Amino acid sequence: MKKLHVTSNREKIAMRISWYSIAVNVFLSLGKLAAGLLGHSAAMVSDAIHSASDVFATFIVMAGIRISGRASDDDHQYGHERLECVASILLAVILVLTGLGIGYAGINKIINQDAEAISIPTLLPLIAAIVSIVVKEAMYWYTRHYALMLQSDALMADAWHHRSDALSSVGSFIGVLGARMGFPLLDPIASVVICFMILQAGYEIFTGAVDKMVDKACSKEEEDAMRAKVESIPGVYHIDLLHTRQFGSRIFVDVEVSADDSLTLLQSHQIAESIHHSIEKDFPNVKHCMVHINPISEVSHDCYQTEIK
Predict the structure, then answer these.
(1) 263-275: pLDDT as tens digits
(2) 44 contacts 176 by C-beta, under 8 angstroms
């Protein structure tokens, strides 16, 4: 009952998490920007830009989840789930562009200014970095929890936005602390380190979304569990084929099994129905299971079993 309740309220829960994310990011981006400008920290200003980009990214998450939840129609007979992957790809692009911008600014400051010309940050950016690390890491685990529960790629991408922001704040903290200890170049160097962290997060989000756009199969563990379920159905001699493909946050399954060729059409249909309903019931992410029955004689089945032994 709990899984059904979660599934029916998937969009509502995701929207609530997204609005929380927007509120946190607006608060942090404004706070970090003020701390960076008033405290003379380039790394903290870069960190603030990263947090601000998360606000725009979360709106994309919301749009992707809302559109992907639409029912099938004549033009999209298999549903709209892959649009959530499109949202994830857009998020990855935003992350990469943000990272490159931050990296360019940091490198430019290192190249064009000597150590004496770089302002020493005050204590304010250091405090802002600590607050950001704590808040964003908490948001990462909070968003990740619901992303796994809802099987939402877009929400998981947003969680990684929070994690990358926490990591960038760690870089800011190190840069500001180093600058205050007499190594002012560490502040713009931290911006470059932040750049690579963001690029890595963007790459992981992008590849994960593309895998689900190109019909990547489920994990071996999940397929093995499906095989065990099919083999437990009365009347199934053996599995001839089991293929899976990820379709956004959902899964399509194709199964071919062998059954006694003396069965009536109705009996064969009942076996197929049992497989179909069992897979869709026990694996909530499965959107549809297609089953094909291959006829096999008792003699052929016995020979097959002997060959296996």
Answers:
(1) 899 999 999 999 9
(2) yes
